[in-house]
Amino acid sequence: MGNKVGDEIQPKAIQDMLSQTSGAAVAAAPVAKAAPQEKIDASVVLSKEELMTKGKSVYASSCASCHQAEGQGMPPTFPALTGSAVVKGDINVQVDLMLNGKGMMPVSEQC
Fold first, then answer.
1. From the centroid of its chain, how far is CA 76?
2. In angstroms, what CA-CA distances link 6 with 2, 3, 11, 66, 72?
């Protein structure tokens, strides 16, 4: 989300990080939580298309209300994701932000 068409998507890297942090991130989650969702088995390897479908669903239910459907945000309170240095930068920083939240941004248990 927020990447332009043609940007490299790294599904294996995301799956690797999620499988390493899935238990710890949930245990450390703050009180503000997204609506309960199905448990995700981190050992299941998903195709790029399956990851994209899941990502779109998670974004629509947990992120779009603040960052907007196309990632344009509502600055300054809710930053734009489109063109964001975080989105285009280190995948580890992106995953950490989604798993742990920041400021007003809640943790997404769907990730």
1. 20
2. 12, 8, 14, 25, 19
The torsion of the CA quartet 30, 48, 66, 110, rounded to 10 degrees, works out to -30
Residue with tokens 């992120």: 63
Tokens of 85: 């240095």
pLDDT, one tens digit per residue, over 28-64 is 434 444 445 556 677 888 999 999 999 899 899 889 9
Q: What is the pTM of this model?
A: 0.59
Residue pointed to by tokens 């629509």: 60
Say if residues 64 and 40 touch (Cβ distance below 8 Å). Answer: no
Q: What does the longest C-alpha to C-alpha distance in the chain come to?
A: 38
As given in the structure block, the two tokens for residue 60 are 């629509």
pLDDT digits (tens, 9 = 90+) for 11-28: 566 666 666 655 544 444
